[in-house]
Model the fold of this input.
Amino acid sequence: MAGKNRGIIDLSSSLTDIWRVLSDVEREKLRDNARILHFKKNDLIYTEGETPKDLMCLFKGKVKIYKRGVGSRNHIIRIICPVHYFGYRAYFAREPYVSSASAFEPCTVCLLPMELIEQFLRKNGNLALFFIQMLSVDLGVADHRVVSLTQKHVRGRLAETLLLLKESYGVEEDGATINIYLAREDLANFSNMTTSNAIRTLSNFVNERMIAIDGRKIKIIDEERLIKVSRIG
Amino acid sequence: MAGKNRGIIDLSSSLTDIWRVLSDVEREKLRDNARILHFKKNDLIYTEGETPKDLMCLFKGKVKIYKRGVGSRNHIIRIICPVHYFGYRAYFAREPYVSSASAFEPCTVCLLPMELIEQFLRKNGNLALFFIQMLSVDLGVADHRVVSLTQKHVRGRLAETLLLLKESYGVEEDGATINIYLAREDLANFSNMTTSNAIRTLSNFVNERMIAIDGRKIKIIDEERLIKVSRIG
DNA sequence: ATATAACTATGTTTAAAAACACAAATATAA
DNA sequence: TTATATTTGTGTTTTTAAACATAGTTATAT
Done:
């Protein structure tokens, strides 16, 4: 499931967001308690029902956070890319995990004990604000997604997802190809539709010259129109 | 839009959650800066695009938080009842409001300047944890709702909403009538369906003897079955 | 290298929910 | 009170997307 490692990675440069608000003592303590894990493609990082123990920071790779829904139909809540934190919400809510996380690609994850983090942020207002801000942004995104995913039609939902992926992962050197390669099924689970509909709608977008596809590579050709399709729903 | 008032209400007994984690100095300062506002039924408390300035605590009445969606179709994100806090997420995310709040019933709201709250929680770990925990719980709820509202069918969605309302607002002396009276339209906007479908499905539930309705009063008769309907979607 | 599994693609059918239309009941305001 | 607006209720039609079916393609593993 995962390999182990320590000390090779420079935490101060990888955990920048947290590192810069910590005192020297806190940094020392954190360094002593940090673990680095490696996950292979499709490895499960945590799953629904487990007890959250660590704050996770993704150093390398891509991670999907998803929930099992009706009839074991999965819904992807969000996708994490480096360097971002995940896995802490359930701990703070004093709940078991209600979602699962798995590696899209080979991943390097840094685990920091939540007990330690909580202990720090009780004394460290900047660290507290850091989490408050992350949670606040994520809650805003979640509220937005509910409306998009429930009210927009298939075309609007898929268009929004493509734009969101472009925004989150950026584009390759050509300035147009989205920097993440998802299976059609993942695209569907992220956009609240069946795989067939994702495939079909993607084909339509190609025919309408809004995008071009080459396997799992998606190139956005006419962003204006895609934005319009996303907006009108 | 709203009346003003001060000092008549005992903040210490109304703001309990926050009050108990504050120092005497903080309490004093907060008391000096707290404002009490009264809202009439259907009054707007804040709206999308405005700049968040205050933490709001609902002392009396009921408030709905909602977003304008596709084709000005509203989606109710959550409903607030006393004594709960709202209006702080956008401030922490450094965004304008992306939702609106309005009074379902005549409301009494206590406004506390967010600047002051932020200043406090930077020093006060317990206060910070209080917000972190609220945000974490709300984010969990939001993630759950996305899946329910997108994957469950109309019957399952409405059943879930009824159960949720019962859980949040409790029941009247008869032990079965839900303690909040919503228009069918609000019920629909909270359950992601059209008003017609809310009305129709409600009628079906009545015919199936799961609930009884008397105007806007909803009495849950067979909770077991309602739970089952909610679960199977 | 070949077999097997997983993914992509597309056409057809079926089911769900929205849209529409209208009537009745209730609430609100002049 | 009466007039007007809003809300509730129900039937019908249309649209949307899911479900199903099947084939071609690409990965993966042995």
